[in-house]
Amino acid sequence: MIAPRKLTKLVAAAVLSVALSALSLAQPAGPNGLVTAQRTASVTAAQFNKRTAAVFGPDAPGSLRGSLNLYKVTYRYRDANGRNAILSGLVILPVNGAPNGLVIFNHGTTVYNNGMPSRYLGSANGSEPETAMLAFASGGYAIAMPDYIGQGDHTGGHPYPANVVNSFAGMDLVKPARATARRNNVNIGEALFVTGYSEGGGVAMAQVRELERSNDPAHRVTAAAPASGPYDLSGSTVEFMLEQPTDQAGFVVRTYLLGDLVYFLHKNKGVKITDYFKPSMAFTINNAYGGKVKDADIIKRIGVTAVLMRAKNSIFNVVTPRFKKVMETMDLRDPAAKLLKDNDCYDWSPRARMLLINLDGDTVVTPKNSEVTFQAMRRRGVGRDQLRRSIIRDPNLNHVTAVPAAMLRARNFFDNGFPGVRDLDEN
Fold it and tell me: In this predicted model, what pLDDT tens digit does every residue of 242-295 receive, in sequence order?
């Protein structure tokens, strides 16, 4: 049996959950949307450079001069139903300024609320917020990381894997991040970069599209590097979910992700979990999700329940026949299928330069997402000067351990464009 810790790492950055929640606007905000900005930690150059060398090795993307300050921010947000809400996030500012601009980093799938970016305090913990900080801060960039709806300080369900819905959390953080910099006399260049990994890769893709649609000069995207995201939710991602895994890890990944999706629909749309999962697994899901249980413990609970149900590593043995049919037919009358379809974000034409990054052989987010997206954009006339791919081909990496390699490629792309990236796909 695979250890829960290893399974947690395989799924903690994975993909899938759905639509919206609201929180009344509790305090006034300025025209830039910023409500509060509290410095929560500082990282010295010595600490930063030691950790960068440990994470990236000989490919470390430069050294930091000066230090970094980390700010937990809260900011105004308007949800899809037009209701006011306050979200939380993390803003990282180099004390010497960020002349190269602002990077929005969108995090991957995680359930435990204390793992959100706004809770990160600069420690050497191998988390995605740490990796993003190490990848970009030494390059003259400020970094903004949204917690997303239903995470961090925002109560309610997290719309998972709602790429489009969650994209606005980072989009609406741009102006508050710049306001935080001004309040602390830190100069940020005008350039705006967008990236993210796993769930965050899908969010980043939709985010670029929504930023470009806004036609707001403050939202003009310079370049984007979505990585290993579920862009084709209703096609490639559903096909992946329906595959019959041959090992425990594949089964747990699928159950974990579908559980996150169904739990959101239960809490925010009033659906019955037992309409989607058989009673024993429905009970486990109802008591595991919501942000208070650590991911490792969720994995343990799913694993134990599956053994008791004699699931034999088949998702079809834990979901209901009705839900199986919904996924097979993509019946849009069902809220789960509709959410997936509404949050597809692969078939469009970006104006900003875009690098699609993915891990070859990824067993959590199928590489077909990137392939389908790349081909759809090419068919729309997006050429080599505008769009390229970079495939990480390293059999020693998995979906989680590939995060540093992906962010290193994003950093090189933001620094020097396509010529700065090794291993560009030939297409």
Answer: 998 778 888 998 999 999 999 999 988 899 999 999 999 999 999 999 888 888
- 122 HSE (CA, 13 A, CB side): 22
Percentage of the chain beyond pLDDT 70 is 92
Alpha-carbon distance of 360 to 371, in angstroms, equals 11
Position with higher pLDDT, 363 vs 20? 363
Q: Residue 185 to residues 180, 188, 354: CA-CA distances in angstroms?
A: 9, 10, 31
Burial 20-57 (b: 16+ CB within 10 A, else e): bbbbeeeeebeebbbbbbeebeebebebbbebbeebbe
**Longest Cα separation, the chain:** 60
Confidence (pLDDT) at 378: 97
Cβ contact 91:68 at 8 Å: no
Distance CA 385, CA 364 (A): 30
**105-163: per-residue pLDDT in tens?**
999 999 888 899 999 999 999 999 999 999 999 999 999 999 999 999 998 789 999 99
Q: Is the distance from CB of 141 to CB of 193 less than 8 angstroms?
A: yes
Residue 103 has pLDDT above 60, yes or no: yes
What is the pTM for the complete model shown?
0.91
> If you compute the radius of gyration of the chain from its CA atoms, what whole number of angstroms results?
20
More confident residue, 15 or 213: 213
Distance from C-alpha of 151 to C-alpha of 147, rounded to nearest angstrom? 6
d(CA 343, CA 32): 27
Separation in Å, CA 129 to CA 89, 132, 147, 404: 11, 5, 11, 11
